Amino acid sequence: MVPFTHNFADSVSRLGEVALIQQISRWLGPVSPTAPLGIGDDCAVLEPISSGQQILTVDSISYGQHFDASVSPEDAGAKLVKRNLSDIAAMGGTPGPAVLALLCGPDVCTQWLERFFFGIRQCCEYYKISLVGGDVSSLEPGNFSAVLTLTGQALRPKLRSTAKCGDYIYVTGTLGGSILGKHYQFQPRLAEGQWLAQNRDCNAQMDLTDGLVKDLKSLLPPATHAALDLDSLPIAPAAYTLAQTSGHSALEHACCDGEDYELVVTLNMQVNRMAFETQWSAQFPETELQQIGRIRPSSTDGQLIDSVTNTALPWAHGFEHLRSE
Fold first, then answer.
1. Can you give the pLDDT at residue 323?
2. Is the link from the previous residue into 36 a cis peptide, with omega within 30 of 0?
């Protein structure tokens, strides 16, 4: 469904900012607390966290970039929340209150927007998130974006920078072909991220949003490379489907597509891998966890190496905003 309308009576411009904010509060229902805990003051008043450390993330969605008319308004709204939740999962955290900035042209359809906020509401109710405020701003006609800032807390936030040379590299789920549906149908790995963050053998973790070959580089310590067993990569069925028409292999899609929203994890080289994998299977029987390589001392061939041929992977990067090639 297209977010825009040519009928003034159906557009947000008929409502204006004040009435639109009032309508949004009604659409959100129980996930939008009243002031001072929610909408109504210049700031929402939040309770201090009870333990651990506070974490904070922000993510956005834009029509034509992160979703199109083939994605329902409800799924687009849920995707906005889940993109942020995936970041919280990567830190091993629990989500807290959120604020939302809405940027839309005057021709955005009110009915579409109501359904968009219904998707946000359903997702917030499921994950027990309060949406406590935000902002509304106008864009040129034909444009729609929404930006969500999500708080959270973690007992011991798991970082990217704490991976070590010799670590085993694991990934959850399957990779590639997300454009065929996973980019909005995914489930954030919150429980998995929390479990991993509390595991003493887990050194580092992050979520996969821009493709394995781009994101994995962010985990590597200085003077190291990732030696990958390409035969072990958990390639999604959608990657094989996409490869039939894209001109690229399923392996390339698994490495480069992005928007997988899976977790990449590094485990200490001293870990009892069999025991760890057994514990994982008992805890998360429906979530695949696959070892795909190790972190090795630096190689002159590049940061990502095929462990069989000892050569650099042929793909330079995954998705990158603002890149022209």
1. 45
2. yes
The amino acid sitting at 258 is G
Establish if 253 belongs to a structural domain.
Answer: yes
* Six token digits for residue 167: 């670590």
Regarding whether 172 and 91 lie in a shared domain, the answer is no
Number of structural domains the chain divides into = 2
Instruction: Report if pTM > 0.70.
Output: yes
Asked if residue 62 and residue 135 are part of one domain, the reply reads yes
Residue 279 lies in a domain: yes
**Interior angle at CA 219, CA 218 and CA 223, nearest 5:** 95
Radius of gyration (C-alpha) of the chain in whole angstroms: 21
Strand-by-strand arrangement of the 53-62 sheet: 53-62, 144-154, 94-104, 131-138
The residues, any chain, with a CB within 8 Å of residue 298's CB and separated by 6 or more, are 223, 224, 225
CA distance readout (Å), 159 to 55, 62, 210, 287: 11, 28, 18, 22
Is the distance from CB of 233 to CB of 292 less than 8 angstroms? yes
The answer to whether 280 touches 291, Cβ cutoff 8 Å, is no
Distance from the first to the final alpha carbon of the chain: 30
State residue 238's pLDDT score: 97
Give the structural domain span for 292.
Answer: 168-312
Per-block mean pLDDT, blocks of 10 residues, the chain (325 long) = 93 92 93 89 87 93 95 98 97 96 96 97 97 94 97 92 96 97 96 96 95 93 94 97 95 94 97 96 97 89 88 69 42
Residue 90 and residue 190 in contact, taking contact as beta carbons nearer than 8 Å: no
- Concatenated DSSP letters for 219-285? GPPTTEEEEE-GGG--B-HHHHHHHHHHSS-HHHHHHH------EEEEE-TT--HHHHHHHHHHH-T
Classify residue 320: in a domain, yes or no. Answer: no
Tokens at 232, concatenated: 């072990």
Nearest in space to 43 (alpha carbons), one of 159, 163, 133: 133
pLDDT score recorded for residue 100? 97
Q: What is the C-alpha to C-alpha distance for residues 280 and 264, in angstroms, rounded to an integer?
A: 14
